[in-house]
Write a structure and sequence with these properties.
Blueprint lengths: L2 H16 L5 E3 L10 E2 L9 E11 L1 H10 L4 H15 L11 E10 L12 E4 L8 E8 L6 E11 L4 E3 L6 H20 L3 E7 L3 H13 L2 E8 L2 H9 L5 E4 L5 H10 L5 E6 L7 H6 L1 E9 L6 H11 L4 E4 L9 H9 L11
Parallel strand pairs: 9-10, 9-12, 10-11, 12-13, 13-14
Antiparallel strand pairs: 1-2, 3-4, 3-7, 4-5, 5-8, 6-7
Length: 350
Amino acid sequence: MSTVGKNVSGEMSDFARRLGVDRVIRPAGSLPQAADALDASRPMSPFEFEVDVQRLCLDATSFRNVREHAGGDPTAMGERIMEIVRARGKMHNPLTDSGGVALGVVRAVGERVTDPPEIGSRVLPLASLTLLPMRLRSVVHVDPASAQVEVEGTAYVCDRIPWGHLPDDMDTAQAVELYDVYGAASHVRRLAPDKGVVYVLGCGHAGRLAMAAARDSMSECLVVAVDVDPASVGRAQESGLCDIGVVADLQDPVAALAAVHQAGAPPADLTVVVVNAPRCEAFSILATREGGTVLFFSMATNFSTAALTADGLGHDVTMLVGSGYGPDMGRYAFDLARRTPALRPPAPGR
C-alpha cells in the first residue's frame, strides 16, 4: 500500500472510531444507532469520554411501552430496562426502536476527544440512548408516572456525540426533560410562519415546549392543541399555551377532524406531532392545509405509513422528520423555559 493509501486508511479508521463504529457487535459495518448490539464491556477509547450514568430519561414512546409491558409494576419496569441493556449494550427498546437521554458525571476523557468536558462535571450526551454504549449495574428507582429512571451504570460517549452541561439554575428533572425534547422548540422556531395556524398534537413535555416556541417566534399565531387526555388539554388552555384545545382520539382521524372543525380551528400551516401513541399519521396530514408542513417529532411515527397515507389522500404537504439534535444545543429551549412560567414545574403540592 502507498503512503497516501495508508494515510487515507488511517484517517478513515479514526473517523469510524469517532463515530463509535468500533463498538458495534452486529451487524458489521453499521453505525451504533442501527446496530443490534454494542460492546459496552471494553475500556474507554482515545476518542471517547466515560460517564457514570445516574439517570435515564426514556423517550415517551419507549417509556409507555416499558410501563405497559410490565403492567405498571416498578420492579418489573426496572427488570425490563436491565434486560434491554444487557441484551443490546444500550437502552434501545426493540419494540419502539427508540431510547431517550442519559445524565451522568464525567469520570475520564480520552486524549483525542475534540471537545472534552471537565472531569467531575455533570453532563447529558445530546444523542439518543439508542446509540450510546452502556452497561447498567442496577436500576435504583422507577416511578411509573415519570419517564426519568434512577440508575447506576457506565456509558461511553464517542467524539461525534454532542453534549450539554446541567445548568445550575434549574431543577435537575426539568433540565433533563428539556434536553430530551429541546429539538421541538428549535424546529418550531425555524419552521413556523410569521403569521398562521400551528397545531400541536400531544400536550406532554415536548408539546408544551412546541406551543411556547410557536407563541414566542410568530408575530400572529393561532395555536391549537389536540390530545386524547382532557386534563392535559385543560392545562395547556389554562396556562395560555394554546388558543384552542381539543380533546380527540388522533387514532380516529375522521372523528378527530370533526372535533377540531367543531372547535372552530382552521387547517394548520404547521402541524407538530409529539404524541407517544402510534397511528396518528393520517390525522396530522388531514389537519394540515394543502402546501403546509407536518413535523413528525414522535418516535411512534411510522414514516412509510405517513408517506403512503399522503399519497392515498392526494394531499400535498411537506413532511419532515424531527431530529432530536439542534445546532443551538438546547440554548433556545432553556431560554424559553426560563421566560415562560407555563413551562416551569408546578409548585409542590399542586
